Predict the structure.
Amino acid sequence: MNCPGECTGGGYAMYSYSKKGQEFKKTLFSQTKSGSNLSFGFYAGVGIASFRVGVNRMLFKEESGSSLWGIETSGQMFILNGVIGTMYNNELKKIKPNLSLGLGIF
């Protein structure tokens, strides 16, 4: 990637998981499912802001063999992170939104 200043770019891969035993304050968007998430794609950043676009796969332990595949884009400014995308459930032949807000460092 060719850009002036502090701009960097490249690929990324991210793996995360959740345990059902983790209980947080219930909100309109909260779910208590356990499983894992794999995301990979392209990354670019300038200073304290970064942006990525990639492919995402979610697996749910309670629903054996159930997985969602989709595309997502994410922006992060210092500690605030937002994700928007779409997920496709092959078993239900249904598209679902993938929205999240969170905290993280770069």
Remarks:
- The chain has a mean pLDDT of 78.
- The first strand starts at residue 8 and ends at 18.
